[in-house]
Write a structure and sequence with these properties.
A: 196 residues, alpha+beta, two-stranded antiparallel ribbon, 5 strands, B: 585 residues, six-stranded mixed beta sheet, globular
Chain lengths: 196, 585
């Protein structure tokens, strides 16, 4: 799958739009969140060819340049984090010379707001069940995109190792739908309080 | 046909659905949540924002099923409305039952005594309480239709809940609002009953083990803006259990919002910095979250609260505060839910001279005094309690109420496990729809009050004395939906070509008054409502000034509204009396 198509799909899923027609061909039959051990990943049968096979008369959305969707989605997510959790203000602010207490006081609210954005729109689950720092087995047929091996893997799986990070998988993404024709580059408008 | 239960709330509205073999479940509502952003939320905040194009542009308010809009309801209306309070309509439902304004006139956002807003309001749109309610309902309808294009909402069975305390006018206006929203036919259901149906739906047949004949269940519903009490009695009827709603309380404008405001005022007192209006609002929100934590079972000693600076620089500008558990307990538990005796009554301050017009907020913030007065008035002691409304999520508040009920009654009081406190009313309404189709037990109740028409006594005029007014009972308490009462002949008449106006009264505690009973209008328990009136135009037969002798008929519709009819004694015509919605002293 083309990287641009992957991005497009990701943000369209996030922001509740329909998937582009060409992406439907890449959807796995089983859309349930996968649990380890994962199925043996079937090498996708030359996706590039599949796009080429697309009948020419099939309607393709062409209104907005492809990169635009990606950009719009990213900006909308940023606007959401800024609006609810002042994310951009916080990260853009300098912490050099500020006391931990001052950073902490601001972080408390930023955390609450950003957490609210995540809770409202996305649900997560660990990719790998089990407690971190415990011994785990990476099963035969695991997906290297789901489990990142650190150090040398000798021979064939299963592998034994220590779970350092359980990973995160987004199992449900319901970000706001975006109305067309709105400039998303203003992620926070200027605020002017009118004098009485 | 499926069943839609709609909770048209003072601060939040919700919708639930049920059907054949489909238990009631809530439905999310797609709404504007940010400029140009729509998303589904579990409830629809009952706020209407009417901005000018300089404040919010119409494309920012469009919905998936609409073009650009000039108004907005729901989450974004509430959030952006905090910055534009003069454009924000809130608590429309409380205005719907407020007789001090004309409820069909465009009076919202309410200006009150803020004359300086007059000029600012001049270019802004205003709506009536009925229209604001209609827009919430219309939004729920459109959101449903968008998600279920094959099952449009107005082709389903629709139940809309109203406070048990709503008078006939407010009920009628709710039906008008629903019609304005495109729901031709709805049925009304009292909110505390809906909450009880949600309990019945959640418990299944288990409820027959929870309750026994003789039990009296208090439904204690404390939401963001209002407090509503009802009593439901369990009886044994030929071997099986029956349920009857035996009492409803007054409309009390007191709720969680008052508590959050009070707590934030205390926290603000301890701050060394001035907060601007928006920071104050952030503080109120923070206090709401702190409240739930501090009143939970294992509450921390302090909940830290941060108020961010308004500018883009956050670090160093954040205001730090803490809400202490003792503070919260002293204020919320002992202030709003003080320990009082069973004989306590809510305080009613005499209004001194001119009072600013607006919503008639409760003077006494003590919920427990209102509760004691309610229970004392009906003389029936609850043996069980069912909580509803967001405020009742706080464990310590539930505990306080249960302790008081135990003290007052001298007996144990069982706490019924309710459904989701925010969604129970919508769920219960959807469940009630299936009950009406014969699935499950129905709560009997009928009209919560008895209704009376005022009749001036015929007696010689005495200077300085208004002739005493008698109240003629036209609809006794407990009149079931679909029933009609014909009154015996009385010396009543309509004057042709003039608006005949009748004074109209209600009483919640006079079960003994039968239809046709004539009592003094100033007797205990009788309160005056808006008058009812009718203009009968002259026709070929009747000339202006003619007096047509009539008798009265009261009819409780299947919808749940009360209709009063004048029937000409000669059989030549019948006229429905209209509720007056004009403003009244």
């Amino acid at each position: 799958m083309h990287p641009w198509l992957a991005f497009l799909c990701f943000f369209r899923l996030l922001f509740g739009r329909k998937l582009p027609a060409e992406a439907a061909k890449f959807l796995p039959e089983d859309v349930q969140p996968k649990q380890l051990p994962a199925k043996v990943a079937e090498p996708s049968a030359k996706p590039v060819d599949k796009i080429a096979e697309r009948p020419a008369d099939k309607p393709v959305e062409k209104k907005v340049p492809i990169g635009q969707h990606h950009r719009e989605g990213a900006l909308a997510l940023l606007a959401l984090l800024q609006r609810e959790g002042r994310f951009v203000d916080f990260v853009r602010d300098s912490v050099d010379g500020a006391s931990d207490a001052d950073i902490g006081a601001a972080a408390r609210e930023v955390h609450r707001g950003c957490r609210k954005v995540l809770d409202q729109h996305l649900s997560f689950e660990p990719v790998m069940p089990g407690a971190e720092e415990e011994k785990v087995t990476v099963p035969k047929g695991f997906d290297p995109a789901e489990v990142r091996l650190i150090g040398e893997a000798k021979g064939e799986p299963p592998f034994r190792g220590t779970l350092r990070h359980h990973g995160w998988r987004v199992v449900d993404a319901k970000l706001p739908q975006l109305a067309e024709g709105i400039d998303r580059s203003v992620i926070a408008p200027a605020e002017v309080e009118l004098s009485a | 046909m499926r069943i839609l239960g709609i909770d048209l709330g003072t601060t939040n509205s919700a919708i639930a659905v049920s059907g054949t073999d489909e238990p009631a479940h809530p439905v999310g509502v797609t709404q504007v949540v940010g400029p140009g952003e729509t998303a589904e939320r579990p409830t629809l905040p009952s706020f209407l924002l009417l901005p000018t194009e300089n404040e919010v542009t119409p494309p920012q308010l469009q919905l998936p099923w609409s073009g650009p809009l000039r108004y907005c309801v729901g989450t974004f209306a509430r959030e952006r409305g905090a910055e534009l309070p003069h454009r924000l309509v809130s608590s429309a439902k409380s205005w719907l039952c407020n007789p001090s304004i004309d409820r069909t006139a465009q009076v919202l956002p309410f200006r009150g005594a803020q004359r300086e807003l007059e000029a600012e309001m001049a270019n802004g749109e205003r709506v009536s309480p009925v229209n604001a309610s209609a827009r919430y309902l219309a939004h729920l309808r459109a959101a449903w239709d968008d998600a279920n294009p094959d099952e449009p909402a107005d082709e389903q069975e629709v139940l809309v809940t109203v406070p048990a305390s709503f008078d006939p006018v407010a009920r009628e206006l709710t039906v008008v609002a629903a019609r304005e929203a495109g729901f031709e036919k709805i049925t009304l259901l009292e909110e505390p009953q809906a909450a009880f149906y949600a309990y019945l739906a959640a418990r299944g047949e288990q409820w027959r083990k929870d309750l026994k004949p003789g039990d009296v269940v208090l439904v204690c519903d404390i939401g963001g803006g209002t407090t509503d009490f009802s009593l439901i009695e369990v009886a044994d009827e030929a071997g099986s259990l029956s349920l009857e709603r035996i009492a409803v309380g007054d409309h009390i404008l007191l709720g969680g919002d008052n508590m959050d405001l009070a707590l934030s005022a205390i926290v603000q007192r301890d701050l060394d910095k001035q907060l601007d209006a928006l920071q104050q609002r952030a503080l109120v929100h923070a206090c709401r979250r702190a409240k739930e934590l501090l009143l939970s079972d294992d509450a921390p000693a302090t909940v830290p609260v941060s108020i961010l600076s308004r500018g883009s620089k956050l670090i160093g500008g954040t205001i730090k505060a803490g809400v202490k558990r003792e503070q919260a307990e002293a204020l919320l538990v002992d202030g709003f839910f003080p320990v009082v005796g069973a004989e306590a009554k809510a305080e009613r301050r005499r209004s001194a001279g001119l009072r600013e017009m607006g919503l008639p907020y409760a003077h006494d913030p003590a919920v427990t005094r209102h509760l004691a007065e309610f229970i004392g008035r009906f003389g029936r002691m609850p043996t069980a309690v069912l909580f509803n409304g967001g405020v009742m999520k706080a464990h310590k508040l539930r505990t306080r109420i249960v302790e008081l009920l135990r003290t007052w009654t001298g007996n144990d009081v069982k706490v019924l496990a309710g459904a989701d406190l925010d969604l129970a009313v919508a769920l219960g309404a959807a469940h009630y729809g299936s009950v009406r189709r014969g699935k499950g037990i129905r709560i009997r109740g009928g009209t919560a009050r008895a209704y009376y028409i005022g009749i001036e006594s015929a007696m010689p005029a005495i200077p300085g004395f208004a002739p005493p007014v008698k109240a003629l009972c036209v609809a006794p308490q407990g009149l079931e939906e679909g029933s009609t009462v014909e009154l015996p002949d009385d010396e009543l008449g309509l004057v042709i070509g003039e608006t005949s106006t009748f004074r109209f009264f209600a009483a919640a505690t006079r079960k003994e008054d039968a239809a046709g009973a004539l009592v003094d209008a100033d007797e205990e328990g009788i309160v005056e409502l808006d008058p009812v009136e009718k203009l009968v135009a002259a026709d070929g037969e009747r000339k202006p000034g003619d007096l047509v002798p009539v008798r009265l008929e009261a009819h409780v519709t299947e919808v749940g509204t009360l209709e009063l009819w004048c029937v000409a004694r000669d059989g030549q015509g019948r006229w429905k009396l209209e509720y007056s919605v004009r403003e009244r002293e």
